[in-house]
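User: Here's a structure from my thesis project, written as structure tokens. My advisor, Dr. K., wants to see whether a designed sequence matches the one we expressed. Can you design one independently, without my sequence as a hint?
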């Protein structure tokens, strides 16, 4: 067993840390022992733990936990990028969310992280041509987590969705790497057009709570969208926009707004 743990520590330090935290958590709160063993310590890899969590949360009378588990295991087995993105997303939450003190928290308790991993499986199904199953996963993710992401949307890695209530991301939306967004964000369309109709969010963008970005417009890398803004026009790189409709109110204030997580309408401090 010690040899196996050492191997995991070398190959997958993220998963090794999660397991160490899980064992400590069981000691601190024995009443959560069954949950933590079933959700984390029972599994040999992070991918298997994520597949278990996915199936447990999304199962219903219409789709059994066993079937969903088989789908998730297949997805993680065939696309290594899903596990890589899950690790990058987890580290993003840990680094940017002051309420996250341990790696195990997003997997067990944070619906934004769990919803994003569910979307990633739905997106894998979509890319495999299994559109109806992808729609089912989208529906259940929305029902359980309050996060509605179309399975055809393209989302990069290292993404944090904080609090995550009432997130909507449309079919042709693109979200880059290392993006942070808060609750009630909408990346939506502006009408009934069926072609490319949703926003394209660049790398490193910070989107404040309640912001709406509408239409096939580009939001440049490392920009900030203030809380409550309605963005209808293109946003250049490294700018801050605010208002209804949103307008440029200054520079982004720092190199990586999505990491700094400073929502105030002033330059970020070093």
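Assistant: Designed independently from the structure alone:
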């Amino acid at each position: 067993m010690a040899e196996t743990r050492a191997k995991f520590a070398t190959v997958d330090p993220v998963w090794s840390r999660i397991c160490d935290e899980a064992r400590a958590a069981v000691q601190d709160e024995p009443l959560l022992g069954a949950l933590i063993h079933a959700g984390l310590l029972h599994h040999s890899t992070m991918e298997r733990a994520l597949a278990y969590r996915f199936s447990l949360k999304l199962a219903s009378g219409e789709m059994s936990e066993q079937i969903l588990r088989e789908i998730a295991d297949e997805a993680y087995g065939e696309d290594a990028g899903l596990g890589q993105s899950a690790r990058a997303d987890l580290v993003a939450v840990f680094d940017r969310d002051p309420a996250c003190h341990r790696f195990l928290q997003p997997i067990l308790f944070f619906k934004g992280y769990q919803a994003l991993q569910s979307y990633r499986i739905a997106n894998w199904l979509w890319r495999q041509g299994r559109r109806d199953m992808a729609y089912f996963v989208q529906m259940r993710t929305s029902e359980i987590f309050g996060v509605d992401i179309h399975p055809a949307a393209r989302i990069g890695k290292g993404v944090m969705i904080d609090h995550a209530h009432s997130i909507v991301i449309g079919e042709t939306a693109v979200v880059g790497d290392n993006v942070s967004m808060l609750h009630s964000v909408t990346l939506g369309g502006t009408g009934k057009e069926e072609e490319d109709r949703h926003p394209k969010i660049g790398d490193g963008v910070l989107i404040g709570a309640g912001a709406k970005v509408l239409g096939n417009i580009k939001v440049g890398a490392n920009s900030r969208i203030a809380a409550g803004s309605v963005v209808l026009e293109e946003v250049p790189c490294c700018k801050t926009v605010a208002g209804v409709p949103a307008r440029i109110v200054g520079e982004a204030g720092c190199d990586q707004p999505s990491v700094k997580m400073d929502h105030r309408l002033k330059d970020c401090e070093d």
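When you compare it with your expressed construct, this may help: DSSP finds ten helices and 15 strands in the chain.
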